[in-house]
Design goal:
The chain has 10 helices and 13 strands. The chain is an alpha/beta fold. The protein has one domain: 3-Layer(aba) Sandwich (Peroxisomal Thiolase, Chain A, domain 1), CATH 3.40.47. The longest helix has 23 residues. The structure holds oxa(dethia)-CoA (UT7). The site of oxa(dethia)-CoA (UT7) has 21 residues, from helix 2, helix 6 and helix 7.
Length: 343
C-alpha cells in the first residue's frame, strides 16, 4: 500500500463480519473419554458443552482465510482493495513468516501490507484499535482484521485443566473509511497490559528463551495456565475496563445494546453482568458451543450475534477482550454495517 495524506481522513467503520469454525465437534462426552473429567464439571465450571477442533491439515491461517473471505463478501469488497491485513493470533502457523502474510497471499490481497499481532485473547480488540487508527489517520482506507486460532494444537490433550477449555476458530472484520457525517464508528478504546502476570498464561517453549529444540519436556511446548489467577484477573478487568471506557466516553451501561466479550468462561460473563447491572440477555454468549477460542472468540461471537438477528443497525456494542500477557482491551462501536452486510 502507498499512503499520501492529502485528504481529510474519514471515520473508521466496522463494515462487515465473517467467521469460520472447523467441522469437527468435540463434545464433553468425548473429553470424558480422554481425561479424568465429567460433563457436569465442565458445564458447571466453564459453561462449555462442546468445541471445534481443526482438521489435521488445518492451521490457523486456513481457518482465517475462510473467515476473511466471508467478511470480504459481506462487505462487498475485493481482496485488491485491502490496504492492510492484521492477524491477531497466539497460535501462528509459524514463528515467521507471519500468518498474516500467508493469509494475505491466499486471499489475493496483493496491495496490502500484512503483520501478526500478539495480544492473546485481547488480540482482536487490539487489532480493531490499530485498524481504526490506520483508517482515521488516512494511512489506510480498508483494513482486514482477523482473529484465528488453532489452540488445540498447542494444548496438551492429556491435561484436563486446559484441554477442555481451549479450541479452534476464526473470525474477521473489515474496517473501512467512511463519511464522518454518516458513521459514528468507534467511540473509543481502552487497552492495557500487565506483564507481572506473564507466567499465569504462557507457552514456555518455542521462542528465543526456550527454543523447541532445547525444551526439556514436551509439555513445555503447550499452554500452561494458572486458571485461578487468570480467572481473578478476568472477572476484575472486564468490569474495570468497561467502567473506565464508559466514563471516558460519557456513557452509561444502559446506553450499550449488546456486550460481546471474550468467551473464556460463562462464570466470568455472569459475574461481569451482575457487577455492571446488565441483564444477561444484553451479554452475548456462545461459549457452550465453541469453548475458549482466544482472539477468534469476539469476532465469532459478533458474527453469530449478527446471524441470529441480535445486531440491529445503530446498536451500540461494547467489546471486551482479556487474557494472556496479561492483557485487556475494550472498545465501544456503533453497529453500522455496509448495505451488503446481513443485519
Ligand atoms: O482466555 C484467556 C483467559 N482465560 C480465562 O479467563 C480462564 C480463567 N480461568 C478459568 O476459567 C477457571 O479457573 C478454570 C475453568 C480454568 C478452572 O476452574 P476453577 O473453578 O478455577 O477450578 P480450579 O482450577 O480451582 O480447580 C478446582 C478442582 C481442582 O481439583 P482439587 O485440587 O480441588 O482436587 C482441579 O484439579 O477442579 C479440578 N479440575 C478438574 N476436574 C474435572 C481442573 N480441571 C478439571 C476438569 N475436570 N477438566
Amino acid at each position: 500500500m502507498i499512503s499520501v495524506r492529502n485528504g481529510r481522513p474519514g471515520r473508521a467503520r466496522l463494515a462487515a463480519l465473517g467467521a469460520y469454525v472447523p467441522e469437527r465437534v468435540v463434545t464433553n462426552a468425548e473429553m470424558q473419554e480422554r481425561v479424568d473429567t465429567s460433563d457436569a464439571w465442565i458445564v458447571a465450571r466453564t459453561g462449555i458443552r462442546e468445541r471445534r477442533f481443526a482438521a489435521p491439515d488445518q492451521a490457523s491461517s486456513d481457518l482465517g482465510v475462510i473467515a476473511a473471505e466471508r467478511a470480504m463478501a459481506a462487505a462487498g469488497i475485493s481482496a485488491e482493495s485491502i490496504d492492510m491485513v492484521i492477524v491477531a493470533t497466539a497460535t501462528p502457523d509459524h514463528l515467521f513468516p507471519s500468518t498474516a502474510v500467508l493469509l494475505a497471499h491466499r486471499i489475493g490481497a496483493r496491495n496490502a501490507g500484512a503483520y501478526d499481532l500478539l495480544a492473546a485473547c485481547s488480540g482482536f480488540v487490539y487489532g480493531l484499535a490499530q485498524a481504526s487508527a490506520l483508517v482515521e489517520s488516512g494511512i489506510a482506507r480498508t483494513v482486514l482484521v482477523v482473529g484465528a486460532e488453532a489452540l488445540s494444537r498447542l494444548t496438551d490433550q492429556t491435561d484436563r485443566a486446559t484441554c477442555v477449555i481451549f479450541a479452534d476458530a476464526a473470525g474477521a472484520a473489515v474496517v473501512t473509511s467512511a463519511d464522518p457525517r454518516e458513521v459514528t464508528g468507534f467511540l473509543g478504546f481502552e487497552l492495557g497490559a500487565d506483564g507481572a502476570g506473564a507466567d499465569d498464561l504462557l507457552i514456555p517453549a518455542g521462542g528465543s528463551r526456550m527454543p523447541v529444540a532445547m525444551a526439556e519436556r514436551p509439555s513445555d511446548g503447550y499452554i500452561r495456565m494458572n486458571g485461578t489467577e487468570v480467572f481473578r484477573f478476568a472477572t476484575r478487568i472486564m468490569v474495570e475496563s468497561t467502567e473506565r471506557l464508559l466514563a471516558a466516553a460519557g456513557l452509561g451501561i444502559d446506553d450499550i445494546d449488546l456486550v460481546v466479550a471474550h468467551q473464556a468462561n460463562s462464570r466470568i460473563l455472569d459475574h461481569a453482568a451482575e457487577r455492571l447491572g446488565l441483564a444477561s440477555e444484553r451479554v452475548y454468549s456462545n461459549i457452550e458451543r465453541y469453548g475458549n477460542t482466544s482472539s477468534a472468540s469476539i469476532p465469532l461471537a459478533l458474527t453469530e450475534a449478527r446471524d441470529e438477528g441480535r445486531l440491529t443497525p445503530g446498536d451500540l456494542l461494547l467489546l471486551v477482550g482479556f487474557g494472556g500477557g496479561l492483557t485487556w482491551g475494550s472498545t465501544i462501536v456503533r453497529y453500522e454495517p455496509v448495505s451488503g452486510e446481513p443485519s
